[in-house]
Amino acid sequence: MAAAPRITVYEVGPRDGLQNEARVVPTEDKLRLIRLLVDAGLSRVEATSFVSPRWIPALADAADLVARLPRREGLTYVVLVPNERGLQRLLDVLDRAGPDAPRVDAAVFLSASETHNLKNVNKTIEQTFAAFEPVIAPARARGLRVRGYVSTAWGCPYEGKVETRRVVAIAERLLAMGCDQVSLGDTIGVGTPSQTRKLLERLLPRVEAGRLALHMHDTRGTALANVLVGLEAGLTTFDASVGGLGGCPYAPGAAGNLATEDLVYMLHGMGYETGVDWPLLIAAGELAQKLVGHRLPGKALQAEIGSRTLLAGSHA
């Protein structure tokens, strides 16, 4: 019997999670969380975004954070660079660090829904692609790999269901422009396994499975079910956020990102190798919860905390 393939758990908590939190986490605390995530064995960590601080004040410390990221063999950080200016800010930090710079790749993002894209980045989809021209090729020329995000790939809060052919066309265009991988995002957590299967059936004859990732939200409790469809289709990269950091802004009070602990628990239980140390991952989740000042929605994290409390009580 062939061994199950190794799965890359792509951690987005420090960027996608913290940017949605009401509390702004200080740089030093972000670094504490990132160090613990790295110690837990996560080898792809999305650290921050070089967007305007006016858009996302929580990530205003991007340059300082990247300059201080801990280096580790086999570890790659990713930062979002929405435009040419964002890329230049990243390159400036790396140039100043010289040979001591950590391995950092870039990511660009757009929505499959025209309305969401306009509201999110104040550009049409075509204008966004034009803005990528001075980002993707120059980043690759500097030795950075580039990841492309397609948000609202299953549904849009303004337009409803998004056509599969539109998502396929955008993903193919990103890859043609030079993106090494495209992450398909269920931004509002409406995707079902049948939708996911249909989307991948359309994409996989055109794109290698290794060049695709799934970024599922658990808003309606279907994130892991969609991941299973991705695993069956041969995908090996799945995005997740420590503790489930980052809610869904279109469904106040609902869960947002798939929790890293929930994903890792399922993968390990199915025999997949992730390289993630479970106790250290739980410790990272507990730290994340402390830093944001409220209970996080990750089910496996809360189960571990609860069982520990129960055991402590039984020994009292």
Average of per-residue pLDDT values: 94
How many domains would you count in the coordinates?
1
What is the overall shape?
globular
Element order, helices and strands? EHHEHEHEHHEEEHEHEHEHHH
Number of strands: 10
Q: Rg to the nearest angstrom?
A: 19 Å
- Record the strand order, biggest sheet: 9-8-5-4-3-2-1-10
CATH architecture: Alpha-Beta Barrel
The top-level CATH class is Alpha Beta
* Unreliable stretches: none
Question: Mind telling me the CATH superfamily name?
Answer: Aldolase class I
SSE blueprint and pairings:
Layout: E1 8-11, H1 13-17, H2 27-39, E2 44-49, H3 62-67, E3 76-80, H4 84-97, E4 104-111, H5 114-121, H6 125-141, E5 146-151, E6 155-156, E7 160-161, H7 164-177, E8 181-185, H8 193-203, E9 212-215, H9 223-233, E10 237-240, H10 260-269, H11 278-292, H12 299-314
Parallel strand pairs: 1-2, 1-10, 2-3, 3-4, 4-5, 5-8, 8-9
Antiparallel strand pairs: 6-7
Helix pairs in contact: 2-11, 7-8, 8-9, 10-11
